[in-house]
Amino acid sequence: MSAELSRRAGHYAAAVAECLLEAGLPVTGIQSCGPWRDADGEYLDVEATISFTQAFQDRHGGGDCGLHWAGTSGWCLYTADRQDRYLSGSRWPGAGLLPEPRLVADFVDAFCLDPAGSGGGEQPSYRREGQDFALLLDALAPYLPAQPCLFEDPQIRFADLHRRAYDHRVRRALVSPASTSLTHVYLRQGELAALLHLLEYAESSHPSALTRLLAADLGARAGRPPEAAETHKRALKEASHRPPALLTETERDSTSETVSPRAGGSF
Question: What is the pLDDT of residue 215?
Fold first, then answer.
C-alpha cells in the first residue's frame, strides 16, 4: 500500500505542477513517498513535494523553498533561510487536504505577490496520521493519468508536462507581437559560446527542431549588422508554423491527463 500511496500522491503532485507550469512558474521537479520510518525510527505519513528553480528560491529567502503536501495537513509553501529548520516559515492555504490543483497555483501566485498575507502560519489537520489509507487512496484516484500505459510513473508524466510547457513558452515568446522589435544585448564572445552550448545541451537532452534552429540563428547573427535578424530567423518561422494555441489544444487532447474538478479537500 505504501508504494501505491506514493504513486498516487505523485500523480496528484504532477497535476498541481501542471497548473503551476501553465501559470508560468519555474517548476523543476516532483517527489513523493508513502508512509515510512526514518533512520531514527520516527513515523512519517504519505507526502509529496514540488521544487522550483534556485532563482525562485533566492527571491524568497535564499534558502530552501518549495511546495510540500502532507497526507494529514494538505499543501504548504515553505521558505527557510540557511539557518532555519525544515518547513519553518510555512504558509498553509487552509484549502483542505486535496484542493483542486488550480487553487494551489492561485495560492502560490498570491504568495509571490504578498508572502506574509497569503495563507496562514498554523498547520491544519484534516486526517489522523497513519489512519484511513483506503479512503486516501480513493480520494487520490481522480488524479491518476487518463493514459496509464504512457504515464504509469509520476516522474515520466511530469517530465512530459515539463517539456511541453517550456516548448509552449518558447514558441509563445517567439511569435508574440511584442517580440518583433530588436533589442540590444551586449555579449562577450565567451558568453555567446556558453549560451550556444546550453542550447546544444537542451537539444541533445530533448531533441527539438526549435532549439536547434534558435541556436543556429543566434550563431549566424554574431558579428553581423542588425539586418541579419531578418535573414536568420528560422526558429521564428518554425514557431509561426505551429502557434502555441494550436500546440496546447492538440497536444493536450493526445497526451494530457484528465483531472477531476473535485475540490474543497474534505476527507
Answer: 92
Please write the tens of the pLDDT for every residue from 223-264.
Answer: 888 888 888 989 988 888 865 554 443 344 433 443 444 444
Q: Which residue has the higher pLDDT, 159 or 60?
A: 159
According to DSSP, residue 70 is labeled E
Instruction: Decide: residue 216, CB within 10 A, 0-12 exposed, 13-18 middle, 19+ buried.
Output: middle
The Cα–Cα gap between 71 and 90 comes to 16
The number of angstroms, rounded, from the C-alpha of 95 to the middle of its chain's C-alpha atoms is 20
- The one-letter amino acid code at 104 reads V
Whole-prediction pTM: 0.82
Instruction: Report the residue count for the chain.
Output: 267
- Give one word for 185, left, alpha or beta, with left for phi > 0 and alpha for psi -120 to 50: beta
In the chain the first and final C-alpha atoms are separated, in Å, by: 19
Between CA 137 and CA 9 the distance in angstroms is: 9
Measured CA to CA, the distance from residue 61 to residue 71 in angstroms comes to: 26
